[in-house]
Write a structure and sequence with these properties.
- It is a single chain.
- 78% of the residues lie in helices and 3% in strands.
- The chain has five helices and two strands.
- The chain has a two-stranded antiparallel ribbon with strand order 1-2.
- The model has no long low-confidence stretch (mean pLDDT 89).
Length: 147
Amino acid sequence: MHKFVQHILDNKLFRYFLSAGLATWVDVLTYFLVYNYLYKKTDIVITNGLVVASTTASLLMSYTAGLLTNFTLTKWLVFKESELETHKQLFRYVLVAMLILALNWMLMRVLIRNLEWYPTLSRAASALFIGFLSFFIHRVFSFRVKS
């Protein structure tokens, strides 16, 4: 049993999804709290013609919390052999995260507006779906190892 557990913990993909799972938990919990208690499910009126949906504003806040959590865990637990400097890793990570955020936003928009899913469930589903894509991008770009 001990060798089996060690084998699982040595698996980079497992550690990535463990890190991502913890960060996603932070993200979804933040989304729930911000959407329900900070914005109280009410859209934000910035000016007379500019309104930001509370779902979008909540996503921006929750995604930032999840991103910082995930970068830290991924750097130290998953891709620790990367020789890139931390600021380069973070810059690349944020570039990928912006792409992932756009994909998350588009998917959530479809799930909430077209399929009428509850926003927090939509957030969790989109995070899981896009998580697989992000592992491979981060492995070859954000935390690249020089050969």
